[in-house]
Amino acid sequence: MLESMRRFKAGIFQALAHPTRIAIVEHLRPGELTVGKLCEKIGAEQANISQHLAVLRNKHVVETRKEGNQIFYRLRDPVLGEVLEKMREYFLKHMNEAMDLLRHEQEANDVEPEATP
Amino acid sequence: MLESMRRFKAGIFQALAHPTRIAIVEHLRPGELTVGKLCEKIGAEQANISQHLAVLRNKHVVETRKEGNQIFYRLRDPVLGEVLEKMREYFLKHMNEAMDLLRHEQEANDVEPEATP
DNA sequence: ATGCTATATTAGAGTATTCGAATGTTAAAT
DNA sequence: ATTTAACATTCGAATACTCTAATATAGCAT
User: Fold this and answer.
1) Whether the Cβ atoms of residue A115 and residue B17 lie closer than 8 Å to each other
2) If residue A78 lies in a helix (H) or strand (E), which one and from where to where?
3) What secondary structure does DSSP assign to B50-107, as a single string?
4) What are the residue ranges in chain B where pLDDT is below 50?
5) Treating both helix axes as pointing N-terminal to C-terminal, what angle do A19-28 and A46-58 enclose, rounded to 10 degrees?
6) How many Å apart are CA A55 and CA B41, to the nearest integer?
7) Partners of A33 in the beta sheet?
8) Buried b (16+ CB within 10 A) or exposed e, A47-63
9) How far is the CA of A108 from the C1' of C15 (A)?
10) Strand B70-75 relative to strand B33-34: parallel, antiparallel, unpaired?
């Protein structure tokens, strides 16, 4: 049972483990939005947003409502918004390290082109 | 800047997005533990636990202290424990669906061996 | 019926995670 | 100086994610 619970939590975290999906959840926090609006605000391809929405739907992080041509997405439970709020608190508290972390990841991606022959 | 913050949050969620790593964080919540104790409690191979600990260390989710032969791990910030607590709340609230979700994932993994020829 | 708009799904290539097995490393004990 | 105990790291195969591009569906308008 404990193991099930952990797999469940891991699944939710997995769903949140992508910058675009975090952006989606944050934008939905104040209220529902259509896919089009989300694309606008986030500035990503429609197909891409749609795929990320599918991930969030599969984990029941978001729910939908259809109105004519378009589909409105909303957060299923504000608790998840609160989780992100806690993360914001965490981020601010450790801002300096956070920046370092990101810088390092950046470099790790930048420096690769060259290999020692 | 917002984008950086989201990548950071995503990184933390990524770190938490595995049942074993969740188990680690939960076990560390009351206080520090050695790697050996963690292996015992979780019931996984030492190398495996060590790899997961490395993931958590890289994201600064945990910190270490060395004492002679062994290494004590502790949660770096109780806020992350609180995040898990929120998740528990969430799990209990949606227990039924959670179970369904897990069952479906289970089936998706079980049924595959056969293919329609 | 045709076309247009909003959204979803599929396919395939590139990349990243995860595991077990093998190998390193450090500190204490003999 | 060896050996043992406690951890960490590396390797390689299997699996899972993520992106772009292409295709599909559903509702509305003409």
Assistant:
1) no
2) helix A78-93
3) HHHHHHHHHTTSEEEEEETTEEEEEES-HHHHHHHHHHHHHHHHTHHHHHHHHHHHHH
4) 112-117
5) 80
6) 32
7) A73
8) eebeebbebbeebbbbe
9) 14
10) antiparallel
**Is the distance between the Cβ of B65 and the closest atom of strand C smaller than 7 Å?**
no
Please check whether strand C approaches the CB of A106 to within 7 Å. Answer: no
From CA A116, how far away is CA A104, in angstroms rounded?
20
| pTM check: above 0.85 | yes
Structure tokens at A53: 């929405």
pLDDT tens, position by position, B51-77: 999 999 999 999 999 999 999 999 999
CA distance linking residue B58 with residue B63, whole number of Å: 10
Closest nucleotide to B14, Cα to C1': C17
Q: Determine whether B39 is exposed, middle or buried from the number of CB atoms within 10 Å of its CB (0-12, 13-18, 19+).
A: middle
Cβ partners under 8 Å of residue B14, min gap 6: A13, A14, A17, B59
Query: Mean pLDDT across chain A, nearest whole number?
Result: 88
- Beta bridge mates, A73: A33, A64
Residue B72 φ then ψ, to 5°: -95, 135
Q: Which of B66, B59, B58, B62 is nearest to B76 (CA)?
A: B62
